[in-house]
# Entry
Amino acid sequence: MIQPDWEVALLALTLWREARGESVDAQRAVGWSIRNRVTKGGWFGDGWAAVLSKPFQYSSLAAPGDANLVKWPEAYEASWQMCMAIATEIHAGEGADPTQNATHYFSQNEPPLWAYKMRHTVDVGAFHFYEQI
# Structure
């Protein structure tokens, strides 16, 4: 069984790689969209590690060629410490979900094809969040 501390660190690494240049609110929203996948299970995977490492879902963890795939935070870097704090809260289920049950997000200008089959829930920072319908 994966230890929760390891799961928190993996979630924090994902937040750091996916959203470190964004606001705390945007980082938190990305984290909650991940938590929503974990709680839904099914196609998304069973548990934090399965959801986060699923191919082609979080490019910063599982897509060859993504520049963030090889980046690592410094232990005392402020952005890493913030991501660890956010990940700890989200892993424990503390706070409210700012994404309104979103399981997907994107940050580019043009929506990916999958977005047209989902319900837009909210925008936070550069991220656009969506829920399966």
Q: What stands out?
A: The beta strands are 104-106, 118-124, 127-132. Residues 4-96 form one domain. DSSP finds five helices and three strands in the chain.
